[in-house]
């Protein structure tokens, strides 16, 4: 796809009453880089010394209220929440009108809270940059981070411009303008198939499936199910961006159930069904829970087999009863689907490390999961048991057979060469 207009429109969002020097500097850098800044003021109490393109009154109006009402609330948290609501509504409206090619937001914790809401309403592919005093902090819930959000720490600039601050802000502005000028947006030339997996040391079916689907005229996007990958998958599904999904690594459901940071949020495994997208689902790696490898294991897992994948992430197996709980949760999620769902149940294993002689081998746990999964699936979901390991070619062949049948029946649109 061709890039957007050579002079992209970049919204610069921040509190102009307290950060006017920084925001005006950012606007000047965006202009020098070939962009067109649009100043969005989300101040509550004061006014910026410049005339914004979109004032705080415009923001309040977009939130169906007034600045006077927001100010009189007497609570800075509720006031900024109202401004976030208005900024989100305004930015989405401007995007729908074709007036936004990218956004950049400057803020501390308050501004970052607002920025996360604004970024979340823009589709994947629209450049989103946040300059924040809490960039990459554990204060930011993973489920609130837009899948393609870019962040940089606002270092040394909380009260005025200096050399360090100028460096940070200019990098951020250059990045968002460059992304808007040269980034390719997702194309729709061929129907898109969404697939989830982990790295090939754990799950391998995508090596068999992707070339076969491409031969059939489909584009295939494989998402890494380590939290943010699942978030991106769910975000695209919620916008009906897939013709069908092979959701074969739903481990993030288990991660969220056990409260780890490797989460895609509470709606994992729900958005494709809610959007009416046909789903072929399998429980890849559902027997594992991912954790930070650099943190002590939670007490609940100290006696369970553990595999350190690298210095960042490790996996622990869940107990037989824990697997039964997750099976029931999967069943409840799939029951809500508004389109066809097929569930493939590989009876000989769910990921590479659960094979005999591997560190996470647990026949008792696998048997418990298989038994509960058979009972937990609702009548609306077609169960297909596959007497093979999930990484076996015969498992991928079974998935393709279902897919081809659905294409022949018109459930899934035909691919385009």
Spatial order of the strands in the main sheet?
Answer: 7-6-8-9-13-14
Regarding CATH, which class of the largest domain? Answer: Alpha Beta
The percent range for helix content is: 25-40%
> Which descriptor suits the 3D outline?
elongated
- Tally of discrete structural domains: 2
Determine the mean pLDDT.
Answer: 94
Output the CATH topology of the largest domain. Rossmann fold
Unreliable spans: none
Descriptive report:
The protein is built from 13 helices and 14 strands. The chain folds into two domains: 9-182, Rossmann fold (3-Layer(aba) Sandwich), CATH 3.40.50.12020; 192-409, Rossmann fold (3-Layer(aba) Sandwich), CATH 3.40.50. It starts with 8 loop residues before the first strand and ends in an 8-residue tail after the last helix. With 417 residues, it is of the alpha/beta class. The chain is elongated. The strands form three sheets. Strands 7-6-8-9-13-14 form a six-stranded parallel β-sheet, with helices on both faces. A five-stranded parallel β-sheet has the order 2-1-3-4-5, with helices on both faces. Strands 10-12-11 form a three-stranded antiparallel β-sheet. Helix 1 crosses helix 6 (163-182) and helix 7 runs parallel beside helix 13 (393-409).
């Amino acid at each position: 796809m061709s890039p957007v207009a050579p002079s992209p429109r970049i919204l610069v969002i921040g509190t102009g009453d307290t950060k006017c020097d920084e925001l005006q500097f950012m606007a000047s850098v965006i202009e020098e880089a070939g962009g067109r800044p649009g100043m969005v003021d989300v101040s509550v109490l004061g006014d910026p010394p410049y005339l914004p393109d979109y004032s705080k009154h415009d923001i309040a109006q977009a939130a169906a209220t007034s600045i006077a009402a927001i100010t009189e609330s007497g609570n800075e948290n509720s006031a900024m929440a109202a401004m976030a609501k208005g900024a989100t509504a305004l930015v989405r409206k401007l995007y729908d009108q074709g007036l936004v090619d990218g956004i950049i937001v400057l803020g501390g914790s308050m501004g970052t809270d607002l920025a996360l809401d604004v970024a979340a309403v823009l589709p994947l592919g629209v450049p989103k940059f946040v300059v924040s005093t809490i960039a990459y902090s554990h204060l930011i819930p993973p489920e609130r981070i837009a899948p393609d959000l870019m962040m940089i720490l606002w270092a040394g600039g909380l009260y005025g411009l200096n050399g360090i601050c100028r460096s940070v802000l200019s990098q951020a502005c250059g990045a968002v303008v460059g992304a808007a000028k040269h980034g390719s947006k997702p194309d729709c030339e061929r129907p898109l198939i969404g697939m989830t997996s982990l790295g090939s040391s754990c799950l391998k079916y995508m090596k068999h499936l992707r070339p076969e689907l491409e031969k059939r005229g489909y584009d295939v996007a494989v998402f890494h199910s380590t939290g943010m990958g699942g978030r991106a998958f769910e975000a695209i599904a919620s916008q009906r961006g897939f013709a069908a999904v092979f959701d074969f690594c739903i481990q993030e459901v288990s991660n969220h159930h056990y409260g780890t940071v490797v989460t895609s949020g509470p709606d994992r495994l729900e958005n494709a069904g809610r959007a009416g997208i046909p789903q072929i689902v399998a429980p890849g790696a559902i027997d594992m829970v991912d954790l930070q490898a650099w943190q002590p294991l939670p007490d609940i897992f100290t006696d369970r087999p553990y595999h350190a994948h690298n210095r960042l992430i490790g996996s622990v197996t869940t107990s037989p009863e824990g697997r039964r709980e997750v099976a029931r949760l999967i069943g409840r999620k799939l029951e809500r689907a508004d389109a066809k769902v097929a569930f493939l149940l590989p009876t000989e294993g769910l990921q590479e490390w659960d094979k005999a002689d591997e560190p996470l081998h647990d026949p008792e746990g696998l048997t418990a999961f298989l038994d509960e999964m058979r009972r937990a699936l609702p009548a609306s979901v077609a169960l297909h048991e596959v007497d093979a390991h999930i990484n076996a070619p015969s498992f991928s062949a079974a998935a393709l057979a279902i897919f081809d049948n659905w294409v022949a029946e018109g459930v899934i649109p035909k691919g385009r060469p």
